Amino acid sequence: MGSFYTFLENFMVENWFSFFMFIVPFLFVIYKYMLQDSLGLTVGNRPNHVTRSNINTKCSKPDCVRCRARAKEKMYMEIHRRMANILSDVGESQWSQDGIGLSGRLRNSFEQQLTTGIKPMVDDEDGNQNPSMFYLQELRRKHSYEHLNDFPNYVQLVSEIKSHFSDIREEFDIVWNDFFEGSNIEGWQENTLSEGKWYTFHLMNQGKKQSYSMQRCPKTSKMLETLELLMSDCIFGFATFSVVMPGTHIESHCGATNVRLRCHLGLHIPEGCCRLTVNGETLHWKEKECLVFDDSFVHEAEHYGTDISSPRSVFMLDVWHPCLSSEEKKMLKYVFHSDLLQS
Questions:
Q1: Contact 338, 206 (CB under 8 A)
Q2: Which residue, among 220, 210, 230, has the nearest Cα to 168 in the 3D structure?
Q3: How many other C-beta atoms lie within 10 A of the C-beta of residue 29?
Q4: Whole-number Å distance between alpha carbons of 180 and 174
Q5: What residue stretches are annotated with the Aspartyl/asparaginy/proline hydroxylase domain (predicted)?
Q6: Whether 224 contacts 254, CB under 8 Å
Q7: In degrees rounded to 5, what are phi and psi of residue 71?
Q8: Whole-structure pTM value
Q9: Do residues 320 and 263 touch, judged by C-beta distance below 8 A?
Q10: I want to staple 49 with a disulfide (CB 3.0 to 4.6 A). Which of 20, 40, 306, 312 is the partner?
Q11: How many Cα neighbours within 13 Å face the side chain of 30?
Q12: Can you give the chain as a three-state secondary structure string?
């Protein structure tokens, strides 16, 4: 055994350069495999899992409004302070000076939430609409907006989004392939699920523009800048690439508020194995088409396919509810401004 170690030592001394050239690529291959495995990206580029150490989960994000607000009263105290400020004589007078009047339903909703505390009271007998943060009373209750003929500006909005389909999908493909191959994971998150995998890439997160993500998707970002109905600078607003892997079930849940509508532009939709159920109605994504729905109603999503190379991919963005007045939107934006993330 000693002679073997002596031989090996002499070999390394005499052939150190050859040994170095051999061991470095070998170690690189091992490192790359370990990195891919830790990201859930195996040698075959199959995202089987994503570790929490590399990708932030939804519930561990320090600035996640819904999850953070449940645990910390400070943010809700600020929300309630703003509501109370609007309801006060001084606050109402200040808004009226700018020509903005407080609607009766907004006044009632603020008063009710200040009375009940964190959980909003919902006038929904069947329990299918249950937003977690804010509920505006007397707002039109409709879970699906397949036809938007009553709202011409929203017809125009959907048309504008669809007209940029090619650019949006092209930029999505770049950032997704980089993530899938493990070459660039920055900006991607995994949402916590009990079954399957759901990844998101935010261009706008809780109303705040994500500069790095927007730089990587300049055409999509430029399009977002033109959308006046987008919920920018409001904690309820997102613009996100959303990817659901085969075998995933996003269980029934309700969104944060009923003052927004959620729009899904289909980017890559595997045929016959994906569905979205909203308030008991089954909807199906289509490539190049938009699904618009009120996510304050109970909803769930499923991808029951088996082909790992065929995830369901959509571009998700939030817009103001079409039955809100411009005055109501201004007041809601004040109360739920994205600066709450700093509190």
A1: yes
A2: 220
A3: 10
A4: 10
A5: 163-322
A6: no
A7: -95, -20
A8: 0.81
A9: no
A10: 40
A11: 6
A12: CHHHHHHHHHHHHHCHHHHHHHHHHHHHHHHHHHHHHHCCECCCCCECCCCCCCCCEHHHCCCCHHHHHHHCHHHHHHHHHHHHHHHCHHHHHHHHHCCCCCCHHHHHHHHHHHHHCCCCCCCCCCCCECCCCECCCCCCCCCECCCCCCCHHHHHHHHHHHHCHHHHHHHHHHHHHHHHHCCCCCCEEECCCCCCCEEEEEEEECCEECHHHHHHCHHHHHHHHCCCCECCCECCCCEEEEEECCCEEEEEECCCECCEEEEEEEEECCCCCEEEEECCEEECCCECCEEEECCCECEEEEECCCCCCCCEEEEEEEEECCCCCHHHHHHHHHHCEHHHHHC
- With beta carbons less than 8 A apart as the criterion, state whether 297 and 278 touch: yes
Per-residue pLDDT tens, the chain, 343 aa: give them: 556 556 556 655 566 555 555 554 454 444 444 433 433 433 333 344 344 333 333 455 556 666 654 546 788 899 999 999 999 977 777 787 777 889 999 999 999 999 887 667 776 667 799 999 999 999 999 999 988 888 999 999 999 999 999 999 999 999 999 999 999 999 999 998 988 999 999 999 999 999 999 999 999 999 999 999 999 999 999 999 999 999 999 999 999 999 999 999 999 999 999 999 999 999 999 999 999 999 999 999 999 999 989 999 999 999 999 999 999 999 999 999 999 988 6
Q: Are 167 and 220 in contact (CB under 8 A)?
A: yes
Amino acid at 171: E
Name the residue among 148, 175, 153, 146 with its Cα closest to residue 241. Answer: 175
Tokens for 104, please give them: 């009766």
Q: What CA–CA distance (Å, rounded) separates 93 from 327?
A: 14
